[in-house]
Amino acid sequence: MVKLIALYRNPENKEEFDEHYFNTHSPITAKIPGLRKMEVTKIVGSPMGASDYHLLCEMYYDDHDALKAAMKTDEAKASGKDLMGFAGDLVTLMIGEEVDGE
Predict the structure, then answer these.
(1) Cβ 87 vs Cβ 53: under 8 Å
(2) N or C: which end of the chain has fewer CB within 10 A?
(3) 56 in Cβ contact with 8 (< 8 Å)
(4) What is the number of alpha carbons within 13 Å of residue 71 lying toward its C-beta?
(5) Beta strand 37-42 with 2-9: parallel, antiparallel or unpaired?
(6) pLDDT tens track, the chain, 102 positions
(7) Among candidate residues 91, 99, 89, the one with its CA nearest the CA of residue 29
(8) Cβ neighbours of residue 81 under 8 Å, at least 6 residues apart?
(9) Whole-angstrom distance, CA of residue 90 vs CA of residue 43
(10) What are the backbone angles phi and psi of residue 47, rounded to the nearest 5°?
(11) Which residues contact 52 (CB under 8 A, 6 or more apart)?
């Protein structure tokens, strides 16, 4: 499995951010063809105390080709446009591969 990972720094207003993220952005993103699973984690701290991060979202695809194909769809473009509009200055996007614990 391949993941598109979105890591969000703390927004100025967490309540406004969460309202948009969970009620607008997530439903748009969930419609992306080829998306197998979407997991959102609320960051509550770090081993050293407070964290600079608010949310982590992992979006799972079958493989790199499935992710590439998904990113070309209208649904992914709508998700990206919305993302840049409300959190473009807060988000870091990464692509990762799941690794078997050998």
Answers:
(1) no
(2) C
(3) yes
(4) 13
(5) unpaired
(6) 999 999 999 999 999 999 999 999 999 999 999 999 999 999 999 999 999 999 999 999 999 999 999 999 999 999 999 999 999 999 999 999 999 865
(7) 91
(8) none
(9) 14
(10) -60, -20
(11) 9, 10
